[in-house]
Amino acid sequence: MLKLQDIARLAGVSKATASLALNGSDRIKDETRMKVVEIAQQYHYIPKRYAQTLARGKSGLIGVVTPNVESEFYGKLLQCLNKQIQRRGYTMYLAISNERLELEEKAVQHLVASDVEGVIVVPLNMPIDGAQVQYIQLLRNQGIPCVFASSYYEHSNVPYCMVDLEEGTYRLVTHLLNSGHRNIVFYTGFHRATPTALRIRGYQRAFEARGMEAVQSNLIECEQIDYDYAYALTAHLLDTGREFDAIIAVNDAMALGAVNLLRRKDYAIPGDIAVAGFDNVNYSRVSLVQITTINQDLDEISWGAVDILFRQMQAKGEIVEKKIVEPELVVRESTLHL
């Protein structure tokens, strides 16, 4: 097993520099620290946590709060965050809010009590006024930096990194309009939730760009944004005689639910009804009718969120920064006439 001096020799630095790098010292350049950490990971060098903590007087922990771990989107996002945190020589400490604000509050309180050095929150897809989220002030009082990843809460004044949801939805709707679709229903989350409000703006902007007016009744607010709800909703729309020629869903799981119901009812996709999702997770690729979607670059979102967090930690102050990642339209057979 390699020792610290071996890691230092391979990295071309002194033993003291290697130790500081592995302990996350802000006295070491990012490039040097990442080089040392990558070599240590390559050779499975594991410094003793107790020794690390004593060396820098800190825990080496970054707290991450997520709504759930069952969703493929959140699961992939957590993997990417963990990778970026480990590259910095830190350990991710995970907490789950189970889609409830009060549990998100308790999770952050627990992380603070566990001496985390920073916190990344994946916000709930709910209409929440960030100015009323109590843990934000708690973190500020404790001098613990916080960043939102993949979304944010209005009026929170907390930095974040996320994909441009408005632009992604705009591109998706524009693609369908260019393909001749006009009566496009949109399975959304709660309309007042920040991510949903952004998507709705993109939906409306796409119609306005063509001199058309979006039909507000086509914006269908869903209590749940999962496969089963979309499957049942699509069946209900058809049974009640609702007329539409395309469906957009806020995630690929809902899009898959719509696709499977339409196939069971012998509708041609996209000949009769086109379907599109969002996120570009495996659901969109494994579907028997592969689903058009918007790719969210989770590696880029994670890198941006962790970068903002660590710059706050080094500056020992809040950096209110908004990093927006460009969406990518991925066109597949669910909207493309082959």
Task: Describe the protein.
The protein has 338 residues and is of the alpha/beta class. The protein is 46% helix and 14% strand. Strand 1, helix 5 and strand 2 (91-96) form a beta-alpha-beta unit. Helix 1 (4-11) packs across helix 2 and helix 1 crosses helix 3 (30-42).
Chart the SSEs and their pairings.
Layout: H1 4-11, H2 15-22, H3 30-42, H4 49-56, E1 61-66, H5 72-87, E2 91-96, H6 101-113, E3 118-121, H7 134-142, E4 146-149, E5 160-163, H8 165-178, E6 184-188, H9 194-209, E7 219-221, H10 227-239, E8 246-249, H11 252-264, E9 274-276, H12 282-286, E10 293-295, H13 298-315, E11 322-325, E12 328-330
Parallel strand pairs: 1-2, 1-3, 3-4, 4-5, 5-11, 6-7, 6-8, 8-9
Antiparallel strand pairs: 10-12
Helix pairs in contact: 1-2, 1-3, 2-3, 5-13, 6-7, 8-9, 10-11
Largest sheet: 6 strands, parallel
Radius of gyration: 23 Å
Strand arrangement, major sheet: 2-1-3-4-5-11
Order of helices and strands: HHHHEHEHEHEEHEHEHEHEHEHEE
**N-to-C terminal Cα separation, in Å?**
57 Å
Give the tags:
single chain, 338 residues, alpha/beta, 6-stranded parallel β-sheet, 4-stranded parallel β-sheet, 13 helices, 46% helix, elongated
